[in-house]
Amino acid sequence: MTNIEFRTHIADKIHYTCRWVRKALANSSDCRVVIYATDRNLLNRLDDTLWTFSDSDFLPHAVLGDRHAARCPVILTSSDTDELPHSQILLNLSPDIPAFYAQFERLLELVSTDPADTEAGRQRYVHYRERGYTLHHETAK
């Protein structure tokens, strides 16, 4: 069963995601992450920011469908598909529940301080809880 974590009170999802990815890749050389967002503008901004986030770190990533995506540790997608090259960690930036979340070992739900996003996060929390998942919560630092 997928381990589900909620990180709440996030002021800037893009910046938080970049920090989280940097830490995850530094802690594990075999870390594999799929970042899902239905908002393509958000995904494009994240793509740009991952390239420029740090002068001292390289955060390798690709958009699903790119030639090298299967070999990248981080894949960005707005597609609600179960045809993904890896299924270790799913990081959800969308207000919706990804249809394919159950194929992942771990799901990380990021919830911002925006009232609409907070409400959508609550609805996702209830959805997972009603399906018997053990949920973990952490307030973002």
From TrEMBL:
<dbReference type="InterPro" id="IPR036768">
    <property type="entry name" value="PolIII_chi_sf"/>
</dbReference>
<dbReference type="GO" id="GO:0032298">
    <property type="term" value="P:positive regulation of DNA-templated DNA replication initiation"/>
</dbReference>
<dbReference type="InterPro" id="IPR007459">
    <property type="entry name" value="DNA_pol3_chi"/>
</dbReference>
<dbReference type="GO" id="GO:0003677">
    <property type="term" value="F:DNA binding"/>
</dbReference>
<dbReference type="Pfam" id="PF04364">
    <property type="entry name" value="DNA_pol3_chi"/>
</dbReference>
<dbReference type="GO" id="GO:0003887">
    <property type="term" value="F:DNA-directed DNA polymerase activity"/>
</dbReference>
<dbReference type="GO" id="GO:0006260">
    <property type="term" value="P:DNA replication"/>
</dbReference>
<protein>
    <submittedName>
        <fullName>Putative DNA polymerase III subunit chi</fullName>
    </submittedName>
</protein>
